[in-house]
Amino acid sequence: MTIHQALAYILRSTAVAALSVTLTATAHAQQMDTKTPRQRPQAAKPDHTAKQQKPLTRPRTATPCSEFGAGFVRMPGSDSCVRFGGSVGIGVGTVP
């Protein structure tokens, strides 16, 4: 092994080690930045001064689109009608 090859090997090894340490430290620093302290849930205190809340209403169901046939329903908030369905078929035959 020549001096040139030995020097290239040492520099390459040093560069790989420095890169791996840098990437590990960066990943650890980013992970530490994203963690936020977790708040403990507070017990709900009854608020006697609050206004009477409205009762929950049921979401409207989609209306049928009878002009397209059975199974079609109108998408809420639009004029489009859709039908979801599917099937699976298997064909078996013999080759003469």
Structure at a glance:
Helix content is 33%, strand content 4%. It has 96 residues and is mainly α. It is flat.
Helical residue percent band: 25-40%
Number of helices: 1
| Widest sheet, order of strands | 1-2
Alpha-beta content class: mainly alpha
Distance between the termini: 71 Å
**DSSP strand count:** 2
Share of residues in strands:
under 5%
SSE topology string: HEE
Verbal overview:
There is one protein chain. By secondary structure, the protein is mainly alpha-helical. 33% of the residues lie in helices and 4% in strands. The chain contains 1 helix and 2 strands. It has one helix at residues 3-34; strands at 73-74, 81-82. The chain has a two-stranded antiparallel ribbon. Strand 1 (73-74) and strand 2 (81-82) form a beta hairpin. The radius of gyration is 34 Å and the shape is flat.
